[in-house]
Structure formats: structure tokens, C-alpha cells
Amino acid sequence: MDIDAFVNAIEEALLREGAPRTAGLKSDVLGTEDPEMRAAAAAVAEGALQTAAAVNVARIVAASDSASEAAERLGLSPQALNRSIDAGAVLSVEVGGDRRIPMWQYSADFLPGLLPHLEQVLAAARERGLNAASLDRIMNLPQPALVLTAPVTPRLWLTAGGAPERVVRLLTGRRFL
User: Record's superkingdom (predicted)?
Assistant: First the structure.
């Protein structure tokens, strides 16, 4: 992704989030004098949500390939990759008008270079309504429900031959970190 497209993607994320809002965030409206709630309200009023939106876009771009890079890495034609995306077998994210493919989906140990049982994982994530940024974090954080010799990431669990049903239950049951 070139720098102009990246900047445009950040601007789009900021526009979607809107300007910082103070209305409705005061502690008396929240019904609490809790210092943590007041601090959170102040952070939102100062633009914390807008910053988080920009950071999420930057993380997605850094941890993803363009569609053409992904097709090349996977040994697929761009058309075959698009069919896989459209069928729900590969996750893509629209960033600045470009399709990006999160890299956590790759596994060099399996053909065609994708994580085993990826389609089941993506179906569970869709069922749960998880967005790409949330799914990226879940797939890359060790989860207490997935233990080999210690808690492992869902990604490692699947590449090690772990039961995909465990990852599906983790995603659909809200039992992830």
C-alpha cells in the first residue's frame, strides 16, 4: 500500500469515528462519581476513540498483504483468491479502497498455504459478529482454553493439529482474552 493510500485510509477511519464528543460523557450523565469512569469519559472527549480507529487501521495494514501479494504468496491467481474471499474461505479487509489479507491466516506447513480449518474459524467469527481487528487479536493471543504445554494462540493450536471445534467454541462462546 503506498503512503497516499495509507493516509487516506487513516483519514477515512477518523471520519467514520467522527469528532471527539463531550455530550453525554460527563460523570453526572454516566450516573457515577467513579474516578475510572470519569477518566474514561475524559479520554473519549479528548479523542481516544479517533486515535484508536487510526491505530487499528495502521495495525491492519502492517499485519496484512495486498490482494496481489497474498495471491502470489499462496500461489493463486487473483481471481481464485477473490473467489475464496467471496466464499468466506479467506478474510479480507477493505482499507483505503484496497483489499488487504491479514497474514495470520497463512501457514506454510499446509497447502494451499492457509491455516487449517480457516473456513470454520471465519464462519464462527462471522456468526459472533467479530470484526477483523478483534479476530486478529484473538488469533494471535494465547488463550487459556487452548493448552498444549502452556496456553497457545488459536493459530498455533490449529497448526499443531488441535481440534478446530475448540477454536470455534472459543469464538462463539465469548471465552477469549
Answer: Bacteria
Residue 19 sits in the same domain as residue 73: no
The whole model's pTM is what?
A: 0.71
CA distances (Å), 69 to each of 100, 112, 113, in order? 9, 15, 13
Residue 106: DSSP 8-state: B
The reply to whether 56 and 68 lie within a common domain is no
Domain that holds residue 47: 3-60
Residues in the chain: 177
Are residues 86 and 120 both part of a single domain? yes
Residues 121 and 147 in one domain: yes
* pLDDT tens digits along 141-161: 999 999 999 999 999 999 999
Cβ contact 174:129 at 8 Å: no
Which residue, 24, 12, 23, is CA-closest to 50? 12
Q: Could you give the strand order of the β-sheet that contains 64-66, starting from the edge strand earlier in sequence?
A: 64-66, 98-102, 93-95
